Amino acid sequence: YFTRSNYMQRKLGKDDRNTSHLMLFRARLDSTGKWGDLHAFAYNSESWSTGHPALSPDGRTLYFASDRPGGFGGSDIWRCQDMGTGWSEPQNLGPTVNSAGNELFPTVNGNTLHFSSTSHTNMGGLDIFETHEQGDRWTDPVNLNAPINTPKDDFHFVLDSTSKAGYLSSDRDGLDQIYS
């Protein structure tokens, strides 16, 4: 699963406000090592953005960020369940995770959901938070603080298989870069 701008026949699609929205797609790697079988996500729209896909470890839950109607702010974290015949309707993760600001870049690291937010208790810009699903609710997001977060934008936090090291993106030095 990946995010791409709204291109159709090599032309960038734009809405009536001249905005090009992000969309989710799925591609499969074939036996020759080539990507193909490209499919657009069923809940894309030319009226809002849908991006930053993250699959649960079992591949049955797809998390993503979207500014689709029904959210709590700018962009929210949503999820769909694999029904075997396609993805369920998007479900907003609710007001514990989502805020009046922007929640973006969900990643699933084991049973932890990491995401970035411009709100909650924040050091500035986007900060990386973690939450856990407990029954039918999410725990209060915890800011990962310094040295992971800075007053700049810090986003897309991924742990390696040991869960003791990983990577994040940040503009802490003036340009978006990957840090380990």
Short description:
By secondary structure, this protein is mainly beta.
Keywords, separated by commas or semicolons:
4-stranded antiparallel beta sheet; 180 residues; single chain
User: Termini distance?
Assistant: 23 Å
The tally of strands reads 18
Number of helical elements: 0
Q: Mean pLDDT, rounded to whole units? A: 93
- Strands of the widest sheet, in order across it, are 6-7-8-9
- Helix share, percent: under 10%
Largest sheet: 4 strands, antiparallel
Order of helices and strands: EEEEEEEEEEEEEEEEEE
Structural class: mainly beta
Low-confidence stretches: none
Mind explaining what this structure looks like?
The protein has 180 residues and is an all-beta fold. Helices cover 0% and strands 44% of the residues. The chain has a four-stranded antiparallel sheet with strand order 6-7-8-9, with no helix packed on it. The chain has a four-stranded antiparallel sheet with strand order 10-11-12-15, with no helix packed on it. Strand 16 and strand 17 (166-170) form a beta hairpin. The two termini are 23 Å apart.
